[in-house]
């Protein structure tokens, strides 16, 4: 009897949602009402624990766009998200003295560095317990000043490129760079690099693919969002960190330069190039909030944009993210969007099949504008912020000689879509990430390059100085060494340095002036330095020594070969 009663009381999912969220009326019949504590039906148990929780967000399903509502137009201006207020944009809580070091430490603070030091020391102790012999016997605990000095060495290696780490401590005169030896011995640097760690292996979440780097990555990306408020235009795109080792979430993207690696979803500010946020793609466990009706690509966009919704921003994305459903959902949340789009996306209008070069077709549905324009091939663009019409690119068509024209939305998209690619280019000039057997160290150094990029942008925003990234990096390294490093005493003994290759060709040896038959052993010539000197009074001094011209042994021989104006 009880089993039959359960079957009569079982409700559909739609009725359950209507009961809990949309209705204040009692719809149960008198037989179903009861004050007893008997168990709920199976399809109500899941909602019993979360119905009253305010911390669980209710994600409304995005409304699909009907492809039949589009109509052709030649004059349409989308309503857009509204006017953007840029008064609060830019750097938040800048340091009192905006030096390169202080801008860098806004992101990589001493607290974050202290956490790295703690985990590095813990991991080194674990390794010592397992390894009795070897270099780890000489390990001594590191500290914050030494770790900052270690990072300076890593950053400097991004400027001074060498094929192997050991080459930085080489005594070969052709490879010699004595500055690295003044910071660390080779063994100490390699020990720090080996023991560099970011998480406690004993307490890390076992099913988290990013458990080795989670805490530091979260701390740094949180500082990105906290320190800088973006301007109106934003850009979301993919970035690929080169990695060819074995890794569960390694990706292959043939259009990227490296092709194999770890994929990042990156949110950038278009005006400054500042990286606002990053998400590491790990497959089904990627840190994104899934939004019904938007799919994976739309959920990535919504997760990255969550802090910036309802602020009238304009987003630029490529055709992997764009869809009429996503753009309509963003517009309902006070955010505009523009991007290339695939012609077969659900909700897209039907365009003319074949078009000639330069032809364009516009379709609108009241809030969005879809454009098909034929250049070298068909280009489909979707926008909620740009009107119909063509604009001059500032170039001439090499065939007709007429000014080159493009749709307004295409022109704006080309100007503002490359922010992520530009950030990759800027970090690639002097990247400190090196080949490593540990993927999490490679990710840390990749994020460190992004920290340097953002620090440089913050420094320019605060001071107004236009310095290059190399100048900023050099000043930063010099400032960190002045604050944290102590001069290391050079090691005694060791392997002797090799002879310079110029030893046999680049030196001059004095010889005697060839004897003449008339003078014999008393043959002399006038010294060239004494005879033509501009530094002192000219003298007619005879000498029996010569190199190419006749020279006095002391001091004229040295002056001739060391002074430009002798």
The major pleated sheet works out as: 10 strands, mixed
- Sheet-strand content, in percent, reads 5-15%
Helix percent reads 25-40%
Mean pLDDT: 83
Query: Separation of termini?
Result: 117 Å
Count of distinct strands: 18
Low-pLDDT residue intervals, each spanning 5 or more residues: 1-7, 23-58
Q: For the CA atoms, what is the radius of gyration?
A: 35 Å
Secondary structure tally, helices: 17
- The computed structural class is alpha+beta
Overall body shape: extended
What does this structure look like?
Helices cover 34% and strands 14% of the residues. The protein has helices at 2-9, 13-22, 42-48, 100-105, 110-130, 144-159, 178-183, 186-195, 214-227, 295-305, 324-332, 408-416, 419-428, 439-463, 469-484, 528-532, 556-562; strands at residues 71-72, 90-91, 228-229, 233-242, 251-252, 260-269, 275-280, 314-317, 336-340, 360-364, 369-374, 378-383, 390-396, 403-407, 511-512, 525-526, 542-543, 545-546. Strands 1, 4, 5, 6, 7, 8, 9, 10, 11 and 12 form a 10-stranded mixed β-sheet that branches. Strands 2-3 form a two-stranded antiparallel ribbon. A two-stranded antiparallel ribbon has the order 13-14. β11 and β12 (378-383) form a beta hairpin. α6 packs antiparallel against α15, α9 runs parallel beside α14 (439-463) and α13 (419-428) packs across α14. The radius of gyration is 35 Å and the shape is extended. The N and C termini lie far apart (117 Å). Residues 1-7 and 23-58 have low confidence and may be disordered.
């Amino acid at each position: 009897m009880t089993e039959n009663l359960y079957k009569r009381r079982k409700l559909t999912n739609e009725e359950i949602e209507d009961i809990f969220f949309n209705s204040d009326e009692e719809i149960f019949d008198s037989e179903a009402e009861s004050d007893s504590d008997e168990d709920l039906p199976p399809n109500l148990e899941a909602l019993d624990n979360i119905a009253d929780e305010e911390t669980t967000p209710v994600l409304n399903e995005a409304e699909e766009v009907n492809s039949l509502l589009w109509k052709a137009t030649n004059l349409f201006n989308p309503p857009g998200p509204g006017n953007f207020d840029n008064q609060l944009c830019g750097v938040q809580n800048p340091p009192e003295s905006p030096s390169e070091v202080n801008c860098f430490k806004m992101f990589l603070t001493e607290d974050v560095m202290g956490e790295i030091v703690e985990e590095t020391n813990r991991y080194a102790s674990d390794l010592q317990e397992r390894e009795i012999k070897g270099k780890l016997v000489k390990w001594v605990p590191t500290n914050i000043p030494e770790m900052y000095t270690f990072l300076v060495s890593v950053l400097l290696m991004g400027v001074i490129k060498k094929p192997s780490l050991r080459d930085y401590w080489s005594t070969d005169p052709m490879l010699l760079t004595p500055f690295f030896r003044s910071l660390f011995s080779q063994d100490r640097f390699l020990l720090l690099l080996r023991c560099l760690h970011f998480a406690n292996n004993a307490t890390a979440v076992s099913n988290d693919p990013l458990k080795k780097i989670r805490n530091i990555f979260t701390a740094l990306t949180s500082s990105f969002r906290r320190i800088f408020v973006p301007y109106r235009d934003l850009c979301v795109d993919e970035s690929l960190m080169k990695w060819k080792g074995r890794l569960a979430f390694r990706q292959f993207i043939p259009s990227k330069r490296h092709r194999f690696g770890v994929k990042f979803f990156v949110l950038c500010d278009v005006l400054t190039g500042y990286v606002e946020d990053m998400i590491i793609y790990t497959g089904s466990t990627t840190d994104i909030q899934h939004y019904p009706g938007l799919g994976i690509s739309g959920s990535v966009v919504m997760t990255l944009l969550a802090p910036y919704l309802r602020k009238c921003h304009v987003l630029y994305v490529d055709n992997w993210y764009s869809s009429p459903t996503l753009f309509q959902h963003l517009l309902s949340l006070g955010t505009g969007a523009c991007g290339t789009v695939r012609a077969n996306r659900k909700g897209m209008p039907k365009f003319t099949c074949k078009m000639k070069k330069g032809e364009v077709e516009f379709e609108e549905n009241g809030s969005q504008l879809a454009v098909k324009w034929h250049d070298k091939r068909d280009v489909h663009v979707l926008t909620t912020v740009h009107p119909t019409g063509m604009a001059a690119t500032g170039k001439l068509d090499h065939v007709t000689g007429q000014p080159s024209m493009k749709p307004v939305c295409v022109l704006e998209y080309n100007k503002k879509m490359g922010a992520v690619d530009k950030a990759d280019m800027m970090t690639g000039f002097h990247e400190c990430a090196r080949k490593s057997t540990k993927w999490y160290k490679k990710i840390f150094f990749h994020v460190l390059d992004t920290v340097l990029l953002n620090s440089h942008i913050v420094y320019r925003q605060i001071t107004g100085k236009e310095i290059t990234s190399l100048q900023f990096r050099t000043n930063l390294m010099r400032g960190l060494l002045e604050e944290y490093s102590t001069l290391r005493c050079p090691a005694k003994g060791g392997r002797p340095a090799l002879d310079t290759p110029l030893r046999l060709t680049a030196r001059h040896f004095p010889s005697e002036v060839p004897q003449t038959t008339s003078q014999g052993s008393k043959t002399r010539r006038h010294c060239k330095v004494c005879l033509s000197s501009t530094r002192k009074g000219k003298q007619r001094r005879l000498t029996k020594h010569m190199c190419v011209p006749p020279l006095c042994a002391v001091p004229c021989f040295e002056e001739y070969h060391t002074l430009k104006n002798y």
